[in-house]
């Protein structure tokens, strides 16, 4: 068994027209035993930048705290928020410096650039970045997420359409993965607001 599947997770980020959405399931488990149904995997960096962390739950919390600390240092020094691409390289560098004893996490990053152009990427546990113009996925439900997103995604979606698409893709995918599920949470980020919605899913 891979340590990445120990707690189970499902993460997806998707691009729309001048907006992006990031969603995750809420199950925290120890293999097939469910421990909690409100585990947080998506974290706000600033108003237009979010990171989702799939993988080992203890490493998710540790890495999130270290990233929050590094971003606050950047804000104090530069007196501005970090651009999504800059933040992605920071995460990549932090993962790579621990490559001989890595964090068992696979991040998904979503953000809006200065001109409100959406940016999404994912990376492996040692920081190899993979950029995408449509969607990225991570976690134990990755295989079914790829299939659902491939069939449902279309370019230039507005925020409501994007929410509907990412929600249906997430719910359809976690039904096919016994290590993730128990509802979900979706963040749709536009230039002037963040829409947060909780999804009800199968509780079995």
Automatic annotation (TrEMBL):
Organism field: Diphasiastrum complanatum (Issler's clubmoss)
Protein name (database record): Uncharacterized protein
């Amino acid at each position: 068994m891979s340590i990445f599947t120990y707690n189970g997770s499902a993460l997806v980020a998707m691009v729309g027209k001048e907006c992006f959405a990031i969603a995750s399931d809420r199950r925290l488990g120890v293999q097939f035993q469910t421990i909690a149904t409100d585990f947080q995997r998506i974290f706000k960096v600033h108003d237009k930048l979010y990171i989702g962390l799939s993988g080992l739950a203890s490493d998710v919390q540790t890495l999130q705290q270290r990233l929050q600390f590094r971003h606050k240092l950047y804000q104090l020094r530069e007196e501005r928020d970090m651009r999504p691409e800059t933040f992605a390289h920071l995460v990549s560098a932090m993962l790579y410096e621990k490559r001989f004893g890595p964090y068992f996490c696979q991040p998904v990053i979503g953000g809006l650039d200065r001109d409100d152009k959406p940016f999404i990427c994912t990376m492996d546990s040692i920081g190899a970045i993979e950029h995408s113009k449509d969607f990225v996925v991570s976690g134990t439900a990755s295989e079914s997420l790829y299939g659902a997103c491939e069939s449902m995604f279309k370019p230039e979606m507005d925020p409501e359409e994007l929410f509907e698409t990412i929600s249906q893709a997430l719910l359809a995918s976690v039904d096919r993965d016994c290590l993730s599920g128990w509802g979900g949470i979706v963040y749709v980020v536009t230039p002037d607001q963040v829409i947060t919605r909780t999804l009800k899913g199968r509780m079995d």
